[in-house]
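Usage

Read records sequentially. Each one opens with the input sequence:
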Amino acid sequence: MFVIWSGWGIAILATGFVGAFITALSSQSLGFPAAFAIGFGLTAIGNFLLARWRNDPSRTRQLVDPQSGETVIVKGRSSLFFIPIAAWTYIVLVLLVVLEVIMMVGS
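and closes with the structure output:
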């Protein structure tokens, strides 16, 4: 399997691994659905904070083209599988809701 990322997109996988680790540690004491929700919730919070940090307007650069005099704004692009890091927060939250509903229906 190939992992395609640009910029800080690989950090999304790191937040996912941290969430999975916390889920595994807390599943014995809390039960799997609650631990699952905590792990996915922490993953979503980590992704949100990462996206907020990377998309901060103060991190953009303004360059001036010497020939035309036009100003060009350069932003860093971070993505995982061509999906921007800000969208991964919502993807994780939707997965959390869908999987929790499936677990509740299955019980």
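Summary fields computed downstream for this record:
- Residues 32-54 form the longest helix (23 residues).
- DSSP finds three helices and five strands in the chain.
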